[in-house]
Specification:
Bound molecules: adenine
Helix content: 25-40%
Largest sheet: 5 strands, parallel
Strand order of the largest sheet: 2-1-6-5-8
Number of domains: 2
CATH topology of the largest domain: Alpha/beta knot
Distance between the termini: 35 Å
Structural class: alpha/beta
Number of helices: 8
Number of strands: 10
Order of helices and strands: EHHEEEHEHEEHEHEEHH
């Protein structure tokens, strides 16, 4: 999979994309991620990428020309499955969307900043709009990182068996069960007996029940 992230603030992406599992996935060539600095597509010597909104009002809007030029130059090189704009008024991101997007070959993620982007970009270029939650961020960069993280861990070969995503919360509509590691007792708190029993059938049953119970208590809406 290839992911191109368009942003006016590429430094915001650098560290999270170069650590841990994402770093390993890139090293194994399971994903290629490129950050594109919108300022490189600015036309003036000050590298301006934003301007005031027509009609007045507070906040700045990302100008259309740098975004159009950046996306069109990428689209000349390859076909993209989606051009995704990260925005608080997009469709709420969830595991189902992550699963679907992880099947794509080439994605563009477009990060807004300040008050947003010129609407014509949304009309002409954007094919999907994603929000990571009902709150407003200063820009789409952190949201893009969350989407990238959620997708990459789903790519075949990225997670080892020990980190398998098959039992993740949400993967089959349920939250995940509690987990414990050594020691078997810590400050008087004991690991449930069943997990020490070595009886895999019993452990499976216990885990299933815990998942159902946790989901019922915390996220009833996922069951009904
Ligand atoms: N940009 C600003 N707020 C956002 C949100 N909640 N999700 C995605 N992108 C955003």
């Amino acid at each position: 999979m290839r992911i191109d992230i368009i942003t006016g603030f590429p430094k915001l992406l650098r560290s999270p994309l170069n650590e841990s599992i994402i770093r390993q996935a890139k090293k194994k060539k399971l994903v290629s991620i490129r950050a594109h600095d919108l300022r490189k597509y600015a036309h003036d010597k000050h590298k301006t990428i934003d301007d005031t909104p027509y009609g007045g009002g507070a906040g700045m809007i990302l100008k259309p020309e740098p975004i159009f030029e950046c996306i069109e130059s990428l689209q000349q090189k390859r076909t993209y499955d989606e051009v995704i704009y990260l925005t608080a008024d997009g469709d709420l991101f969830n595991q189902k969307t992550a699963n679907q997007l992880s099947l794509n070959k080439n994605l563009i993620l477009l990060c807004g900043h300040y008050k947003g982007i010129d609407e014509r970009v949304r009309q002409k270029l954007v094919t999907k709009e994603i929000s990571i939650g009902d709150y407003v961020l200063t820009g789409g960069e952190l949201a893009a990182l969350i989407v990238v993280d959620a997708l990459i861990r789903l790519l075949p070969g990225v997670l080892g068996d020990s980190e398998s995503m098959l039992t993740d919360s949400f993967q089959d509509g349920l939250l995940d069960c509690p987990y414990y590691t050594k020691p078997a007792e810590y400050t008087g708190l004991k690991v449930p007996e069943v997990l020490l029993s070595g009886d895999h059938k019993k452990i499976e049953r216990w885990r299933r029940e815990e998942r159902l119970e946790r989901t019922r208590v915390r996220r009833k809406n996922l069951i009904s």
